[in-house]
User: Fold these one by one.
Assistant:
Number 1:
Amino acid sequence: MTLLEFDHVSKIYSVRGAGQIKALDDVSFTLESGQTIGLVGQSGSGKSTIAKILTQLEVPSSGEVRLDGAPIPRRGAGLRSYRQQLRMVFQDPFASLNPYHSIRYHVERPLRLDDVVPASETEAEVRRLLERVRLDADAVIDRRPHELSGGQRQRVAIARALASRPRLLIADEPVSMLDVSLRLGVLNLLADLQREEGLGVLYITHDLATARHFSDEIMVLNQGRVVERGPADDVILRPQDPYTQELRAASPDPEKHFAAASGSGRTETLGGSL
Ligand SMILES: Nc1ncnc2c1ncn2[C@@H]1O[C@H](COP(=O)(O)OP(=O)(O)OP(=O)(O)O)[C@@H](O)[C@H]1O
Ligand SMILES: [Mg+2]
């Protein structure tokens, strides 16, 4: 079933003194429930603009975005429900958590705002979510973000995103600021959650190797246009579009394979290709 649909979406930014930048140029695609799409393309190709439109930081200049066939609501209960269904994991786990608040506060907030569970069950639900992202709830719940490692913080950000029981997760470079030794653990966690909860995921990345490994399909953006889309192996191993071929040639290790095991909590290490 189609969960998300971009229908001929363009986005033009007006920059004082610099004229207009066409960040998205007639972008159309669909994402099915439970599907992971890897969105790749070089810096400035428009990837984050797609995320910003989905999180309503920006509005399209033309075209329409639909969730479950309905345009993104602009206000009221419809908007609240949209925001509950679509959640974001940001690149920077340092900036996305408030340094003055405890981990409990961060995970509790969406539970309260979205009325996910009765108030008497909030504490148990916070703990369940922390365990779900494989954190030791007792050890982290009363700490503040700066007392955790980058990988632990990103897990808190994922727990917070899951709290509202969304159906679609937008992950914009979710591991690029983490130490390489932590990246695969966080990506495997996202993949496990995706499978277990049937989440749709838009995984935005520069990295072709993890895009291929963690996505069902890959979509390639070049200067705001979708130049290629298809099953992950086809796009990465047998790219048709010249730009994808260039991107592949410039990528350190697009054919890299990752150990499939996940959720074991063991430390995975990864070379410099990530
Ligand atoms: N708020 C803005 N105002 C003006 N121009 C913008 C704005 N946000 C993005 N742009 C421009 O739009 C284009 C697409 O930017 P976007 O952030 O979507 O790229 P990206 O693919 O996410 O890049 P990166 O890989 O570096 O994160 C770029 O040329 C960028 O400079
Ligand atoms: Mg970006």
Number 2:
Amino acid sequence: MNIEHKHAVIVGAGFGGIGLAIKLQEAGFDDIAVLERSNDLGGTWSANTYPGAACDVPSHLYCYSFAPNPDWSHTYAPQKEILEYIRGVATKFDVLRHIRFNTTLEGARWDDEASRWRIETSQGAMTANFLISATGIFADAKYPNVPGIENFQGKTFHSLHWDHEHDLTAERVAVIGTGASAVQFVPEIQPDVHHLTVFQRSAPWIVPRMDRRTLGIEKSVLRNVPLVQRAVRSGWYGAIEAFGLMNFVDRRFRHIYESMGRFQLLRQVRDPELRRKLTPDYIIGCKRAIFSDAYLPALGKPNVSVVTDGIAEVRAHSIVDRAGVEHHIDTIIYGTGFTSIPTAFDHYVGREGLSMGELYRKQPQTYLGATLAGFPNFFCTLGPFGAAGNQSAIFMIESQIAYIVDALKTARTKGFRRVEVRPEVQDAFLEEMETRSRDTVWLKGGCKSYYTTDSGENAGLYPNWSFEYRRRTAKFDAHSYEVTV
Ligand SMILES: Cc1cc2nc3c(=O)[nH]c(=O)nc-3n(C[C@H](O)[C@H](O)[C@H](O)COP(=O)(O)OP(=O)(O)OC[C@H]3O[C@@H](n4cnc5c(N)ncnc54)[C@H](O)[C@@H]3O)c2cc1C
């Protein structure tokens, strides 16, 4: 039986996979396939449809640099608009034809003898010279360990799998978790529900969002004067990048951002007891700070209670907190975020027979967040140490795309059949990551978050400026690789 062969197989059709397909195609690589397990492209933006879903990096920065959009309706575009944008870009750059929808990558093993990847998908087997993972970092829902949850007789769902058929009107709703998604959907559902009980493990830092509708005149200027469009993007880039001062330069810069958070809390929460509950007990930035103007006021409404005592037990129609109070509940919504390792990492198996997931669990590792020792002809976007704690994910993804495309171009020009990062190069990179991470707010901020591993190490954020990362990934450094012609 003939197995289909491709020069490059990309896994995932979000910002990463679509951007890769566009840039590979522009570089003359047409023999590619994008595997996408769902029936739509957009990744994060087709999966997260909960009420209020929107980006929290301003839209003029949260889009591809090569496809600016003068028509964003708001400073922070809502989910549907971002999804339309990605669909539009994929159509305009003619990459839809490469996407295999409803095709899950189930396994991928490097065959050293044949110098190719052997890939298993839900639609059959394939082989590829290059395998590129673009499965993102927030692709799989994480559920909390709640004692007795199996006894619950009401409705439950995760924010990633919002049940739009289920009517919350007049229900008693529990929200477990207070991360970025919950902060967006809580103010949306609060006016409709009978009672909302928010179970909070630790209070997030909430800073002003200052979202607003874009004026027609602004759109027209942006459309007609590309220089202004670029200036707006650069302005936002600088403002967001400045978070790095607090993250990895000097934690004392936190006072600037913490004062914004404190002022917001003071202004928006009048009740001192509620304010006490909503005051974070760690340094801002240790966990992701969240931009919102609507969340804190929603928590102060008479139909909302915030429970900070933790959950002791779930019963058929209620949740009992650790203070012994029983809360009667019809629906539980999990706002508990995402698994720390994308499930796809367990599917990629390298030269030594170990999966990327197994290696990650020993120690988060890659070289430049874009490739991995022991995994020839393998690249990824947003791999460990390739995600920024203080910048648009798309900026990092575009850096990785440039690096990966240059790697494939170099291999084509020089006739390399196989490229694999040298272990000593990766080790030096990881050592640098460790040293640079030591004093970051993520490790020293006094919290536990998905930014760190269970043993308290950096889980994979790039602990330096994103412009420095861009410089490092601008060109494929073939000398850092073992190559076979
Ligand atoms: C609600 C929300 C808001 C966010 N807002 C921001 C923001 O404002 N700024 C920011 O920088 N970042 C934000 N992020 C992070 C966001 O995930 C990234 O910005 C970006 O969308 C990642 O794109 P991606 O293509 O790397 O991954 P994704 O968008 O997650 O796409 C990965 C794709 O891979 C597919 N896939 C996974 N496993 C398999 C498999 N085994 N086989 C086939 N396909 C597979 C998935 O179905 C998915 O389509 C947000 C995330 C969420 C959840």
